[in-house]
Amino acid sequence: MVPAAAQQQTPRPAAPAQPAPAQPERAARPLPPKGATIVVIDISVVARDSVAARAMRSQVDRQQAALRTEDEKTDKDLRAAEQELVQQRTILAPDAFNQRRRDFERRVTEAQQASQNKRRDLEEAFGAAQRRIETAVNEIVIEIAKENDYKVVVPRAVVVASHDAVDITDEVLQRLNRKVPSISLALPAAAPAPAPRR
Fold it and tell me: Are 12 and 59 in contact (CB under 8 A)?
């Protein structure tokens, strides 16, 4: 009867980010010549190294740690309540015991649902923040292409080989850091905790 949600490992929406001092912005390599037919961008570098992406991963890690701590406390409380219920079986009338048992099972269900809802909220907030970064990257790529009359911009992941001279990743990364210098996960306000049932 102890909630399984309190024992599950949370799926990580992104690779864990270890807290570290902000890295100095590196000098961008020169942009390809104006009018270049094809230029490339390494999206994985932008997603990994941008200030906003690092901040987002750090917030996700902190929230996941808080959820794990909360689940551990809930699990401990429910185990104690279950043990108390078992002890009361011999001293309560059958009807009274069955009511206590139903109350406990309702607590377990509510705890599982609350844990699942908080993880869903975190995943949705992560997705919304990620989409904001992706939108900003797309806007910057279009801006750079228009400014320099680039005909086609392709992700490096689909290119077999290319020269660094046709890479615009550094410029995109620097502009993204200026455009989105920080980002916050939009999590719903925490609801007041219900009074424990005895």
Answer: no
